[in-house]
Structures are given as C-alpha cells and as structure tokens.
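pinning this so it doesn't scroll away 📌
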Amino acid sequence: SSTRQPRRRPWSREELVHGRNIALGLATDSSSQSSYSSHLNSYISFCTLHNFPLDPTPDTLSFFVVFMSYHIEPRSVGTYLSGICDRLEVYFPEVRMNRNSYLVKKTLTGMKKLRSKPIRRKLPLSRSHLLLAESSLSPTSSYDDVLFVSMLETGMCGLLRLGELSLPDNRNLWDLRKLTKRASVAFEEGGYSFWLPHHKADKLAGGATTMAEDGAPPHAIQAAGRWASDTFQIYIRKNPFILNAMLTSR
C-alpha cells in the first residue's frame, strides 16, 4: 500500500533561494565569515587590478597565489584559497576542484619554497608555567588575575583553545551557542567538569604535550582532546613537540 504524503504548499523559486541563502549564511561561523569575506575581497581586487574575470579557474587561482605570495606569507595564501572557495562555491561549483588542481597545488608549493620565512614555533605551555602563574597570586589578587590563572589551568587540562575560554572583542562575532553555561559546571572529587557545546581540539601543543610526557598512550590523548582518529594521527606527525614527547616517554 502506498503511503500518503501530507499536503504541502509549493514554494516559489524566490522563497527557495531565500531559504537556501539563510542556511548557507548559518553554515559558517561569524568569525570565519568575516575572514572569508576579507579573503574574497583580496581575490576580487586582484582580478580587478589585472582585468581577469572572477571565474576561479586553475590559471587565475595560480596567478593569485604567485601575486599574493609576494605580499603576504605564502603559507597564509592557502587559507585565503579556502575562504575564496567558501564564498564562491555557490556561484562557481567547480572552485574547490580548481583549487585542488595540479597547477594550483604545485604553484603554492613552489611559492612556499621561494618566499616563505622559517617557522618560529612557540614553546608549549608546561606545568612550570602554570606553577609560576599560580605563585604570582595572593589573597589580595584581583578578580581578573585569578580568572586568568583559572583560564590557563582549565584550558591546559581540558585541551581547550582560546576561543573556547573567552569571547572576541567584537560583539558582532559572538556566538551564544558556543558559550559554556555556568549552570553546567559540576564540582567533583578531585576536580570539576562543565558542558562544552562546541569545541575544536587543542592545536597549541600544551596540555597534549604534558599528557604525552607523562606517558599517556595516544588513544588517551585522542579521547581527552576529542580528536577524530585520522585528524589525530596527522597532528601527531606534524607537531614536533608532541611527537618528540611521545617518543621520549616510552
């Protein structure tokens, strides 16, 4: 027997386009939207300056890579390309395929070798840093000082990012859906917990390095950092701090 579908009013094309635009607008975080729009503006300015059409062909994108690599760090150009893809995909569905083309990838690789500056990594946050911060507190310390140290310890032990501990100065970039509510904080024996509604795993080689130095197995660090397995393995290979810590802790 056939199932009967409820009667639904057909939408006009304008309504469908409007609904889709709203969905696309909400698919990207406000902070990312701001960055992506800036990246797109750079691409539009480049095309206007050189009388190129906006169509992001492999040729045009590779020329953009060369041009921008002489004005900004080439490693950042890849981020620009991601923003351009996000903003233009609705109008040029093939933009991601073009961005991943052999020509664009090889051009970006070559410009990194030609123009990139040496990477200067900051040292990961360690227990000694936390102890130093704690020792600076006194019974007369201000609320802000105590809050800062609390954020340091919570962020390191929870493998959190700065964006999960604070709000941007620009109120337009606030996303209340990401806020941890005070009502979710629970004090337990030996610690406390809270509900993190939205997260990205720690990328700063702080708490994860400390866990590795303590001999924690990879699966324990993966669970604590809330990494997907593939992402976690890539991160371990690329981050020299964590890789070295895990090797020397065995």
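📌 and the second one:
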Amino acid sequence: MSSTTVTSTTATLCENCNLRPKYFDGVTTHPYCNKTCANKAKPSPSRQATTSANNCDHCKVRPRYRDPTGFTHPYCGKSCAASHAKSSHKKSTGSTSTKATCQAPGCQKAPYTNPDGSLSDYCSQAHRTIGETICLMCHQAPKRPKSHFCSQACIDDAESTSPVLLEVPKGHVTFKSVEEQFKTSWRHTGKRCPHVRRVYKIISPQANLASYNAYRAAVEARGQFVATGRAPGNENRRWHGTRRECNIGDKGRTTLCTSSNCPMCCIIRTSFDLTKFGSKTGWGRFGKGIYTSSTSSKSDDYASNDCSSKLTAILLNKVVVGRGCKMLNDNTTLTAPPPGFDSVLAEKGGSLNHDELVVYRNDAIRPSFLVMYEH
C-alpha cells in the first residue's frame, strides 16, 4: 500500500477513536464518527483557554450568567456568587466560622449578595436606610430630619454626658457628608488626599452652646442672612488643625484627657479660647483671632501628634461668619473685625496661597466633628 493511500485513509477516520470513519451528513464531513466520540474529544489548548475565561469564577464549570441587559456577571448564578463571597470572607478574616451578618442594629440575617459576588453591609434596602440614618445615641431608630438623634430622650441622654464624642458609623449620611467635605476641600496639589478613617460627633455642654446660639441669633438679626438663602448668622463649616497630645480619636479612645497641654481635648471640652492665641505660631496674619479654613489640606499643616498614632486628627467646626470683610494682605494688629463686619475672610491671591476665616470672639465658633485620617 502506498503512503498516499495510508494518508487518505487516516484523514477519513474519527479524530477521537481513529477507528470508525468520520460521520458524513450528506453535506459536511464531521471530525468525529458519532456524538459519543464528539463529547469525549478534548478541546484544543486555545479552546480550553477561551472556555475557562468564560466560565464561572467559582465552580469553573458552568458559563457565566449574562443578564437581560447584556452584562456578563463573574458567576453562573446566585449560589456560586454567595459561596465565593463566603469563602473570600473566610480567607480575609482568617476564620472558618465567622458568618457575616447585616449591620443594621439587632439584625442577624445574612447580608445581601451583590451581582458581582461581594457582600453588602445590609440584608435589604430597608435596613440600609436604617443603617445610614441611625440615631447616634441609641443606635436603635432612624434619626430625625436635621438632627443626629431619634428623640428628645436621646438628645437629653447625649447632653447629660457632654462633652462627649459619639462615633459616626461608616456609611452613615453624616459620615459621608463630613468625608466628602474633607476630600473636596483638599486643595494642595503636592499633597495626596488621605483616607478618612473615623468621624466623631462632638456633643458640647448646653451652656457652651447657649452662648454660641445667642451670638448667632444676634448676627442673624443684624444681617438677615436667612432671607437671602443662607444659614442663620451665615453659619459655615470650617477646618481647624491643632496639636494632639493624647490618643483621643484613635480606635476605642473617646475619653478626653485632663492635660491642659493637649489643645485638642481642651477645644473639644470647652471650645476655643482667644487667650491661647499665638501659642503655636506666635503670631497671626490678621491679628489676634481664631483661625479656620475651608481648605482641609491647609488645616492639615497645623495638625500634629505628640503621641504615637497612625492617624491625624482635625476639627470641623461651625462658625458664625456673619458679614465677612475680604482681605488679601496681612494686618497683624487686628483684635476685632473692621467696623460693620463680623469676621475676616482672608482670600487666596495676596499673602496667602489658601483661604482663612478669622473670628475674634469665642462665641463665634464651636467644634462640631473630630475627623481622623491616615496619610
């Protein structure tokens, strides 16, 4: 038999068993003799790679689920998505028994599994809403609109323990608001914006707040800011960086220290004090006042630790701006705003690279949030 005949005969045999002839359907000659051999045939390496790339990331067998919108999910179904998420959680925690639960108070249900296989913090949209608006005192009910608390009872409880720090849960609308202001006001191009790790609501003593509220009302009466769509007294939130001697704000550290040399705890306890002016810098561009900024990265320049900590602390304060006098150049002799004004708005462009807001009386400012971030 010639070599040509052998080649021709081999070419007509099933590519799997090499015994029976390839199946011919009258139009096309198929590579296998029947379905059994076709199913047994192993795909080529290139086909294996393609098939593997399109298979479920968990079971590696079934194809990935393609939803009606055309989006291809990484898993074949909810079962594999949930199984993969659980195994990933065990690996990340180093535990084989930890079971993730909904973060809503009192709920022990498993959290919702997202389409990409990751776990949500909550089991349902209803519980997400609760978690994002939970009362900062009791952690049991949604807070009231424009309040941090769910009831007068919780307000009274918080005030009775003041001054106190109440940690704001991550994901809470208040946490998001403070974090967003921190990020959007980080304006130094040469400084990478750090991550906000913790936010605490500062609850000040009622007597302390009463004098602030009275001053704000007086400024509002003069300026009628509400009528122009602004907050009463033209109140704004501004940043202030200072020195932290203790570990206040670190994980589990919410008790104020008693040191008179810890500016951070002193401000949280009794608010700002003009008699301390110049204790850090020795002077002020716009005289003897209390300095804040809308630029978080500027206030970061003044934030420092005299303790061992990975975190840096900064204060977000509510300030009665009233009618602000805009200034570009230094005026170190000021002890009060110019006549007819309630504050000084030191603007970028003159002697400053970033803005400053200066008030000249203690009642014009109160600390509102302690923000902890990591460079």
